[in-house]
Amino acid sequence: MSIALVAGGTSGIGLATARRLHEQGYDVHVTGRGKERLDDVAVSDPSLTGHQADGGDAGAMAALAESLGMVDVLVVSLSGAEGMGPIASLDLAMLRRAFDAKFWAHLTTIQAVLPHLAADGSITLLGAISAHAAMPGTAGIGALNAAVEALVKPLAVELAPRRVNAVSPGVVDTAWWSGFPTEVREGFFAQTAASIPSRRVATADDVAEVVALAATNRNLSGTILEADGGARLVSVG
Q1: What would the pLDDT profile of 193-206 be if each residue is shown by its tens digit?
Q2: ω before 154 within 30° of 0 (cis)?
Q3: How many CB atoms neighbour CB 70 within 10 A?
Q4: Nearest 5 degrees, angle CA 194-CA 196-CA 202?
Q5: Contact predicate 5/31, CB 8 Å
Q6: Are 130 and 138 in contact (CB under 8 A)?
Q7: Given 3.40.50.720, 3.30.365.10, 3.40.430.10, 3.30.420.40, which CATH number is that of 3-233?
Q8: Most exposed of 58, 127, 178, 224 (fewest Cβ within 10 Å)?
Q9: Residues 108 and 62 sit within 8 Å (Cβ to Cβ)
Q10: How far apart are alpha carbons 232 and 227 in whole angstroms?
């Protein structure tokens, strides 16, 4: 059975992707930093195998990949809750933490798993619409997601015939927004839904469907799939 490893697969888009890959017949392994979320996944999704490992820890990720023998599909769905704010007052120490949590963790995971990635395997990364849009307050997080997405094309050529792609979601109703006050979050979701062509805020499973496609379609490489409901076409925020 082919093996899929979803780094950051205990919630949100990562967990939804892990479920879809399992439905497609993969032996799916997910990583998470916290034992509590892994315990939750063990109860809700016993078909998935959880591992406590930090994507930014090269040793832990390499040891995990080695224990799996050969990884056919690597999905890197690592993120943090920081990075937004107006440039005049943007906390640069916070932004560095955000880069550590996402960009450096993506890069570390790729490097650690690569020796154990099948010769015809795939790597799929998670960026975000902030890499392409021009929304106030997103210069920091936009640079972060642009850095992740900038890995795709050179790695697709460098690592061929392995395939490398990314998915760039728009506004998605996940726990990422839990740090915002309820009224702020709901107001922004309503504003977004009213202004984008799809007229709805995406679910984690909406995006996971696209991630699974990028990870498994053998004719996709060097591609960033924009799963944003058309948000890139209009002004949001």
Answers
A1: 888 888 988 899 99
A2: no
A3: 13
A4: 90
A5: yes
A6: yes
A7: 3.40.50.720
A8: 178
A9: no
A10: 10
